[in-house]
């Protein structure tokens, strides 16, 4: 296998994704198994690249990470919807094929900065389990976010309602769909300390070399590549800047001294000229 530096990254196989929300920060951590191209064929490399993104606890940038897990279970959308009614434009064929599915439409929001229209398909025979939800921003025909679910599981306490066995979250940017699939075999509807401790430990442990850490918590955004070292060229650039600054200061000092010397010389010559003219006037009859 050729050295990685001679290979082009084609894609990555997504392995794990963790999200956490506490009083310290809100964050997302994903692990990707890198895929490279060798003579046109995809080759799986054993190296794993992790990406850790950290936000302040109250940063709404983590909104999508906070809700998409729950929404892909077909639950948790009601508080984001202001009004809801039966969609009069719903296809009649769909209702005939599956009478338990009802199409609904209403106004609501995605987060405090995004208001718009919700379109839902709800399974009324399974405790109103959401089978599809699309959020449209004003005057847009393509949804901004779309959630689809399938299958059914009985959720554990405290809710005791059926949830979808699997689901997908799609985010549309410039008409392009970015889709992530989720499976909820081990979904827990309540706080689990063991799970929290596991996720928290992942955020605190050292990441593999070449992992990316993006920190948005401070006044300035900081991006770090784990294991990256400063190159010699950069170090030389820094030294050259220091030399340039010191040299510039030296020449500036010489210039000031030269200007002062010229002014002193001019003052001396003027004073001497004034003395001569006075003597001449005194000697004149």
Explain what this protein looks like in three dimensions.
By secondary structure, this protein is α+β, with helices and mostly antiparallel strands. The protein has four helices and 14 strands. The chain has helices at residues 63-71, 92-97, 193-204, 232-283; strands at 8-21, 26-38, 41-55, 85-86, 101-111, 114-123, 129-136, 145-150, 153-154, 162-163, 166-173, 176-183, 212-215, 222-225. The strands form three sheets. It has a seven-stranded antiparallel β-sheet with strand order 4-5-6-7-8-11-12, with helices on one face. β1 (8-21) and β2 form a beta hairpin. The protein starts with 7 loop residues before the first strand and ends with a helix. Mean pLDDT is 76; it is low at 1-7, 230-248 and 275-285.
SSE arrangement:
Blueprint: E1 8-21, E2 26-38, E3 41-55, H1 63-71, E4 85-86, H2 92-97, E5 101-111, E6 114-123, E7 129-136, E8 145-150, E9 153-154, E10 162-163, E11 166-173, E12 176-183, H3 193-204, E13 212-215, E14 222-225, H4 232-283
Parallel strand pairs: 3-13
Antiparallel strand pairs: 1-2, 2-3, 4-5, 5-6, 6-7, 7-8, 8-11, 9-10, 11-12, 13-14
């Amino acid at each position: 296998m050729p050295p990685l530096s001679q290979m082009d990254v084609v894609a990555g196989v997504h392995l794990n994704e963790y999200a956490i929300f506490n009083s310290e920060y809100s964050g997302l951590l994903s692990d990707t198994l890198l895929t490279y191209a060798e003579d046109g064929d995809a080759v799986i490399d054993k190296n794993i690249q992790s990406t850790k993104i950290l936000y302040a606890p109250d940063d709404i940038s983590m909104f999508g990470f906070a809700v998409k897990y729950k929404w892909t279970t077909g639950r948790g959308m009601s508080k984001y919807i202001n009004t809801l009614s039966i969609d009069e434009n719903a296809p009649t064929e769909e209702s005939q094929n599956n009478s338990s599915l009802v199409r609904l439409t209403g106004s609501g929001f995605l987060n405090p900065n995004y208001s718009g229209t919700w379109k839902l398909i709800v399974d009324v025979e399974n405790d109103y389990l959401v089978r599809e939800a699309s959020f449209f921003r004003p005057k847009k025909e393509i949804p901004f976010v779309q959630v689809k679910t399938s299958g059914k599981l009985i959720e554990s306490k405290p809710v005791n309602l059926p949830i979808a066995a699997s689901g997908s979250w799609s985010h549309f940017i410039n008409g392009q769909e970015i889709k992530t699939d989720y499976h909820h075999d081990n979904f827990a509807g309540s706080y689990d300390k063991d799970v929290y401790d596991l996720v928290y430990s992942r955020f605190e442990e050292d990441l593999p070399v070449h992992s990316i850490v993006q920190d948005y918590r401070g006044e300035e955004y900081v991006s770090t590549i784990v294991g990256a070292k400063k190159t010699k060229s950069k170090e030389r650039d820094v030294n050259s800047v220091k030399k340039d600054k010191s040299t510039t200061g030296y020449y500036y000092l010489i210039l000031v001294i030269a200007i002062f010397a010229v002014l002193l010389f001019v003052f001396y010559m003027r004073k001497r000229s004034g003395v001569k003219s006075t003597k001449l006037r005194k000697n004149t009859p």
